[in-house]
Design brief:
globular, alpha+beta, 3 strands, 40% helix, 3 helices, Sufe protein. Chain: A
Length: 85
């Protein structure tokens, strides 16, 4: 099991906790801060998915005029989790 806490940048959420199994399947995602309903929805949708598939789907999503979003920051968190563990 791989676990990683990612401090977000440019979003309302402040931190994303990611857990991947040994095959890089998303087991858990928890956001600290942000829009509660949206972050719970994102977490539920990515659970059980391949980490690389999640990255491919959510990388580059923007929130309004911001250059990033909670899903985009999740792609960074997952990528770092995969690399550092």
């Amino acid at each position: 099991m791989k676990e990683f806490d990612y401090v977000t940048q440019g979003t309302c959420s402040r931190l994303i906790h990611v857990e991947l199994d040994d095959n890089d399947i998303v087991q858990e995602v928890r956001f600290v801060g942000g829009c509660n309903g949206n972050t719970q929805g994102i977490s539920a949708l990515v659970k059980g998915q391949k980490a690389s598939d999640v990255i491919g789907r959510v990388r580059g999503i923007r929130c309004g005029i911001r250059p990033t979003s909670c899903p985009d920051q999740l792609s960074n968190a997952i990528e770092l989790c995969m690399k550092q563990n």
